[in-house]
Structure prediction request, 501 residues.
Amino acid sequence: MPGLTAGLYVGLSGLQAHQGALNVIGHNIANVNTPGYARQRVDLGTQDTQFFGGFGYGPGVSINSIGGVRDRLLELQMYSEQARQFGAQGRYEGIQAVAAPLADEGETGLSAQLQKFLQGFQDLSVRPEDRSLRQNLIGRAQTFISTLQTRYRQLDDERTRADSGIASGVTQINNLTEQIAKLNARIASEPTPGSDSDGRDQRKVLTDKLSNLIGIHVFEGTHGEYEITLDTGAATLVSDSISYDLQVTRDPVYNNFYRVDSVMGSTVVDVTQRIADGEVGAKLDLRDNILAGYQRQLDELAAGVAAAVNVGLPGPPPTAGHRAGFALDGVTTGNDFFQGAVANGANGIPPTITAATNYKGMVYALSVNGALAGNPALIAAAGVAGSPGDNAVARAIATLQTAGNTVDTNSDGVGDSGPYSQFIGQLVNLVGTQGQGFQVSADNQQNLVTALQNQRDRVSGVDLDEEASQMINFQRGYQASARFISVINQLTDQLVNQFGR
Prediction:
């Protein structure tokens, strides 16, 4: 049968196992406030039975494993939901940055300035020979254009800020994926599966940060490694111990903004339109779709005003435009009120700015005809030659305040929206509705992420009361093992001393 020496080894195994368990408890308590930390648990087990004289004796206890307590599926789900939350939040913040400038409020609003401009034609129709009214009309037109261009420029500035954020975001993404790939290699080489719990915690924190920046799908492989792709599946970011970078380059297709490419060896793929969520996805959507969409509508408005004022509306009934009218001298005709950066086309719109391109660039191209600005007497208020007091064209243009179908939004060259005030109101409502929608989406996603985080904390979080209870258990186990060794020591001492006389 086992001797007293064997008893010492049994007691020693108890000391070592409970000491190790107490160390794990201490590690949990020390990391109670560490983000992403998953509490660790010790799995104790009996050592293999030893046989003496036909009987089996247990040689003690050992630590089978130390591993983190985590719900892997829950953590993988959180990455996707966090990306959606930051995507919605980023879009909301971007829209909020332009909501105030686009708000059509007060005397400085876009509707008010356009109405004042068209009212100038109404005033001129009362006294068409009044040179001061003509000069006032030029000033109102220029103020309207300035207001329109200021709104457009503010959208440009916000798009530029979003573009800069894309470049810095890609740099952060590459740094994170590189670190995650290194942790993949470390975890794959752990002595026993699941033993490197701290490495997994570090990887989770990095992946959380990555999901805040970009929409991702995360899969855990058979060896615990993370496989990370874009949420659209367009590119791989991490595979085993290899990370694949994203890169940004200026591209004229994107108005000389940054294009985002996935670089996998010699394969380079444009994924700019395949990044859906996270902060970078939000900035791409703002830059290329949401804010660009607001600018498109301002371009359509500018084109609609230029076309209707210059050549009138087809009707029925048709409305005369400035080009068909006669100046104060009763002779000069054929002039457009508005002109672009190049020669005017058939609708008083620069031929390089077309319906097919949603009139892109019209706001910046729009200006008052330089000849009229220098000589307001050239404003064509009369509808017939040789009648300086006639006001037919001035009255026709003034009616554009309430005319329908003044703006082409279908890119077919035919007005289908209006009056102007209604079109501007729809743009303002769109900004408010989209902003509110993304705010609600962000709040809902935040609630979902919070619920998932709470659920994770219940599974993986450190509960100090529970740790205290476990600590007492292991403390008593350690003390009992020490007492057992003390008894064996006494017996051994007694045996040696008694037989040594």
Summary: The CA atoms of residues 312 and 423 lie 18 Å apart. The first strand starts at residue 40 and ends at 46.
